[in-house]
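Suppose you are handed a protein chain with no further information: no name, no annotation, nothing but its sequence. What can you learn? This example shows the usual starting point.
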Amino acid sequence: MYKNRAEREAFLRGYKDWDLFHKFYLGYRDVRIHQFSFKNNAHVYATECGNVVRYNLLIPESDNYNPFDQHSGRAPKEFQAYNLTGCSIGTIVDYMTKRKDVI
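A reasonable first move is to predict its three-dimensional structure. Written in structure tokens, the prediction is:
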């Protein structure tokens, strides 16, 4: 899909070109959630609220991707539901690199 890390990061930072999944107002702020779906049924969401953008990676249940150390106390299940804290661009780039043949 993308040849290297720089192209993958540029793709993620260009989230405004993705589908607008949902838009709503939170207090006085406009919140927009953009979505991109991969061929393997994984999804990336970019939640934009003011000047802050948080990314989420949602993977299929059958995907065992886990960027964390086995002793970290964290598990792949964290990538099977949307959360407000999101994850780093580096984590999503790592996923895109390791799954480049199926996404």
